[in-house]
């Protein structure tokens, strides 16, 4: 699965706020919930680097949604995140004002949970870098843009060589590579690498994969590759 996105949700009506937060969490999002503007600013201060998108009710106590949006747009970390205004104010001039403040979307209440989630997903898809690419095999997910590997939402710490190995296998799932081919891929200009080096890296990579270790298969007499029996269709 793709690593979770974190949503800042600012809504002063507690019951609807909890319902939306729970619904998004069931949809595999993390939610930071604030019931007023001061709580929202505190969450921004503490969790700015974790927030991917903000859903703001305009009419919240102390610091309203428009002011929070302005803070986000001036923030050194959050300035580019998508912002959705979710509000009972549905006049055209209110929507125009919200968009001029830097909001990306505007949803009038009442709105279904599914609709809000659909708007969130649409905006987050637009945020993906153009060269971002996710490759999924079994329970493993490779982010070739961020150069990270995930197993059941958990990031696996890899060395640069281990990452180069798993990327090679993921990008060419039907191929079996000889030790020499793998050496040429991971060794570059380094002449002081040997067949045994490949075996050690494979062993270490399998240890880190844990119960997904059988995704890397030894093809006797040939070399290594992904286990074709376990690959996603």
UniProtKB/TrEMBL annotation:
Pfam families: Response_reg (PF00072), Trans_reg_C (PF00486). SUPFAM superfamilies: CheY-like (SSF52172). Coiled coil: none annotated. Keywords: DNA-binding, Phosphoprotein, Transcription, Transcription regulation, Two-component regulatory system. Residues 132-228 bind DNA. Residues 132-228 form the OmpR/PhoB-type domain. The modification 4-aspartylphosphate is found at residue 57. Residues 6-124 form the Response regulatory domain. This is Response regulator transcription factor. It comes from Rhodohalobacter sulfatireducens. The lineage of its organism: Bacteria, Pseudomonadati, Balneolota, Balneolia, Balneolales.
């Amino acid at each position: 699965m793709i690593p979770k996105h974190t949503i800042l949700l600012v809504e002063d009506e507690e019951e609807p706020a909890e319902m939306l937060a729970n619904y998004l969490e069931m949809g595999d999002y993390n939610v930071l919930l604030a019931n007023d503007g001061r709580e929202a600013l505190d969450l921004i201060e503490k969790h700015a680097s974790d927030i991917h998108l903000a859903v703001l009710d305009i009419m919240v106590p102390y610091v309203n949604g428009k002011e929070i949006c302005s803070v986000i747009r001036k923030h050194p970390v959050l300035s580019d995140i998508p912002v959705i205004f979710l509000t009972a104010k549905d006049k055209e001039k209110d929507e125009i004002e919200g968009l001029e403040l830097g909001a990306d979307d505007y949803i009038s209440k009442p709105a279904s949970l599914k609709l809000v989630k659909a708007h969130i997903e649409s905006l987050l898809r637009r945020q993906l870098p153009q060269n971002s690419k996710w490759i999924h095999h079994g329970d493993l997910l490779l982010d070739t843009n961020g150069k990270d590997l995930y197993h059941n939402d958990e990031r696996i710490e890899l060395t640069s060589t281990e990452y180069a190995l798993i990327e090679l296998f993921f990008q060419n799932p039907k191929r079996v590579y000889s030790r020499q081919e793998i050496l040429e891929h991971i060794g570059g200009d380094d002449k002081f690498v040997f067949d045994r080096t490949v075996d050690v890296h494979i062993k270490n990579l399998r240890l880190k994969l844990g119960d997904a270790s059988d995704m890397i298969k030894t093809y006797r007499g040939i070399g290594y590759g992904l286990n074709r029996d376990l690959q996603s269709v």
